[in-house]
Amino acid sequence: MSSNTGRMTAKQRLAIERQKMPERSPDERAKDFNEVNLGFTAELAKLEATRCLQCKKPTCMDGCPVGVDIKKFLELVEDGDFLAAAALMRQTNSLPALTGRVCPQEIQCEAECVRGVKGEPVAVGHLERFIADYERAASEPVNVEVAPPTNKKVAIVGSGPAGLTAAADLARMGHDLTVFEAFHAPGGVLVYGIPEFRLPKKIVAAEIENLKKLGVKIELNTIIGRTYTLDELFENGFKAIFVANGAGLPVFLGVPGENHKGVYSANEYLTRVNLMGAYNFPNCDTPIMRGRQVAVMGGGNVAMDSVRTAKRLGAEKATIVYRRSEREMPARIEEVHHARDEGIIFEMLTNPIRILGDENGWVCGMECLHMELGEPDESGRRRPVPIEGSNFTMDTDVVVVAVGARANPLLSGATPDLKINKWGYIEVDENLQTSIPGVFAGGDIVRGSATVILAMGDGRQAAQSIDNYLKDG
Amino acid sequence: MVGHEIVEKQVLAPDVVSIRLRAPQIARVRKPGQFIILRISEGGERLPLTIADADPSAGTIRLIVQAVGKTTGQLASLEPGQAIRDVVGPLGRPTHLDSFGHAVCIGGGVGTAVVYPIAKALAELGNKVTAIIGGRTKDYVLLEQELSRFAQRVIPTTDDGSYGQKGFVTAALKDVLDSSPEPPVKAIYAVGPVPMMKAVSELTRPYGIYTVVSLNPIMVDGTGMCGGCRVTVDGQTRFACVDGPEFDGHLVDFDELTDRLTTYRQAEARAVQRYENHTCKLKDES
Ligand SMILES: Cc1cc2nc3c(=O)[nH]c(=O)nc-3n(C[C@H](O)[C@H](O)[C@H](O)COP(=O)(O)OP(=O)(O)OC[C@H]3O[C@@H](n4cnc5c(N)ncnc54)[C@H](O)[C@@H]3O)c2cc1C
Ligand SMILES: Cc1cc2nc3c(=O)[nH]c(=O)nc-3n(C[C@H](O)[C@H](O)[C@H](O)COP(=O)(O)OP(=O)(O)OC[C@H]3O[C@@H](n4cnc5c(N)ncnc54)[C@H](O)[C@@H]3O)c2cc1C
Ligand code: SF4
Ligand code: SF4
Ligand code: FES
After folding, report:
1. ipTM score of the complex?
2. CA of B261: which chain A residue's CA is closest?
3. CB contact under 8 A, A227 and B225
4. CB within 10 Å: which end of chain B, N or C, has fewer?
């Protein structure tokens, strides 16, 4: 089937339009938690890959934080050599099934694709997802080489994308790996934050299984800083530690009425639904308030996930309330489109100043102000300024606050020698080593709320640094 | 065995049980005032419970639980040899302990289980400890004998007068404070239903005595990640699972806590009903 390789002219390639990702209809999908996107078929994948011009200077690669060899990858997909494409991918990106689904491609790889200058970029993300799913479905798992055992124990704190990536790399280097996870299930934000309809849990589970096959031990229900301190890990024979405990501290609005019943942080809302299975109450024991009119504060992925979850829990009206305009929303563009198709309402340039409660302490509304955009702020985005006298009330019976996260102080608080910056994030050097020798850190706890791929990139770099450290030590 | 084996069980009152379960690392490092969160089985709820006691050499912790709902009811029905799938801890800040001279420890109902390790630790520090333990009826006066091993005085009270002093723990506390005890009372630890902790705090406010309460808001993770356990203390939002669970009773907004605790009342009633009708199959994915 590789007959077209090299033979197609640039002009012919240019004539092919971007293939649409097959998805379930909004009506159907907004009623359940199954995945929205259905994935490319092999034909669609090859056709889409054929759109790549195989540029001499593949600018797309500058847009990828981990430097995936996109050009070569697309060539292999075009040739139908999917397993080779998967193997190539895994050289730089160990979790393509995830990144293909959750990377903000429109500001990363696809943003730099020349085809995007006039028209639409090559759908790198969709193809990444395709080959990962293809590989998983192919019966023979790709055999990864594992170096002979070094008998050196390494501890990983946190089983999010940073921790999982570091664990996989270090295990392949022959080290003896243990991942400590606070929750009763591994995966970090991938399991308790990002919902099933965007990232099926079985994909995360498959990656965890791969880790176990590499001999990685996972200790659940273990909080470093409580169950064990970092010092105790060293006393127990660990030679190096990678701290990847995520950001994990909810930010509230700080407006009156925020403690009324029915006001959730997005972390709590999503954890109840995703990790604890509250959508399945009372078959699962954890309850959640199912509002009829749910208002979600914020414009990022977390807000989008929350509002679409609310819809799936049966809300008649699920609304995004964001203080800037749609242009400034940091969410993945695909999620915004999906949300819109599912009937999510967008109240832009709106900021709540008070949450109203009824006589029994339940949320019943929000007092808001309309905003307008002023001068650009430090983030380069135009600053929202309140329009005086524009107060209005919005009816709502559940409010979800998704306006960001900060550094959780639990571990750093229990580790006085660990240097943190003024926002509480862990300070690291260029090798991701912290102020404590042998302790490395990466992911959201270093960067602030970032992305899955950046966390994975840190995991990979930390693995290299730890390997070097263990060789020297 | 997957999880943590129950090695001993004792029925303390009609719906209150004491269980010891295997959790060696937690037993080794826990301090008075700290708690664990457990999940009985797959699909279960995360349930916070105070570590009432621990035996590091045996590798066990003791929990005292009152069956008030589905999960606590299910827990109370487990027998030795059975296991609890997930136990995480120790959580929360340890109790602020000091040599106060004389401390009063007040337990209301199952709150006595929470105040018990604190009383024990205070006594070990050389404090004179007076314990006031209240219950609705005689059956709910818990741990009297165990407390009397180290407390100078244990005053039981019951709402209905079926045992000890008739009335609320606050009346007994007032008597103690007004009797000008020697050494004078410098600290009060009160754990029990929210109205009780509020009443104790109101009572001690004019005396200006340091009063500690242990709050029991609804929790999910127990690590400061979700904010579900937020309480207002001195006008500030605090997370009980990491900033507490103990706070200065004179600064706590008890009314807000009372209100937030009712969030899932209706939902829970549904869960209990289903559980009791045995229509609910616990789903086990493992
Ligand atoms: C709802 C939501 C949607 C998102 N959507 C996207 C998206 O579409 N695309 C994207 O790129 N990014 C997205 N992100 C951001 C992305 O998920 C994070 O940047 C990424 O997960 C960070 O990875 P991490 O490994 O640093 O930490 P985390 O994924 O946060 O994992 C940290 C883990 O450490 C555990 N832990 C914490 N403290 C301790 C301790 N003391 N001891 C032991 N374990 C501990 C935690 O329980 C957790 O499992 C989203 C985030 C959220 C919340
Ligand atoms: C830090 C901490 C330590 C605790 N220690 C103990 C302990 O040592 N022993 C013990 O028996 N209980 C303790 N509790 C309370 C215990 O966690 C609750 O009783 C439990 O969550 C109720 O769960 P359930 O599913 O059985 O009942 P549910 O069905 O969830 O609730 C039944 C009824 O109890 C009320 N309720 C729910 N949660 C709480 C709560 N947290 N506190 C008070 N009332 C509640 C509800 O409003 C409802 O009316 C503690 C709670 C916290 C936060
Ligand atoms: S990892 Fe993310 S940024 Fe890199 S190529 Fe894949 S989708 Fe694009
Ligand atoms: S920039 Fe676009 S067209 Fe060029 S190699 Fe990369 S993906 Fe292909
Ligand atoms: S229980 Fe989630 S922050 Fe306290």
Report:
1. 0.90
2. A261
3. no
4. C
pLDDT in tens, B230-243: 999 999 999 999 99
pLDDT greater than 80 at residue B268: no
Per the listing, tokens 């008649």 go with: A316
The architecture (CATH level 2) of B102-214 comes to: 3-Layer(aba) Sandwich (3.40)
pLDDT over 80 at A141, yes or no: no
* Angstrom distance (rounded) from CA A188 to CA A159: 5
Predicted pLDDT of residue A91:
85
Q: Which atom of ligand 5 is nearest to the CA of B239?
A: 4
- Contact at CB, B43 and A250, closer than 8 angstroms: no
Q: How far is A54 from chain B (nearest CA, A)?
A: 45
A16 in contact with ligand 4, CB cutoff 6 A: no
B187 phi and psi angles, rounded to 5 deg? -150, 145
Q: Do B25 and A228 touch (CB under 8 A)?
A: yes
Domain boundaries, given as residue ranges, for chain B: 4-91, 102-214
What pLDDT score does A1 carry? Answer: 44
> What kind of architecture, by CATH, is found in domain B4-91?
Beta Barrel (2.40)
The pTM score is 0.92
CB contact under 8 A, A408 and B224: yes
The encoded tokens of residue A332 equal: 């993945």
The residue nearest atom 2 of ligand 5, judged by CA position, is: B226
> Cα A396 from chain centroid?
28
Cβ of residue A71 lying under 6 Å from some atom of ligand 4 = yes
> Do B164 and B157 touch, CB atoms closer than 8 A?
yes
Q: Which two tokens stand for residue B56?
A: 């590091």
Q: pLDDT by residue (tens digit) across A145-181?
A: 889 999 999 999 999 999 999 999 999 999 999 999 9
Interval A90-99 mean pLDDT: 89
Across residues B268-274, what is the average pLDDT? 70
CA distance, residue A120 to nearest chain B CA (Å): 39
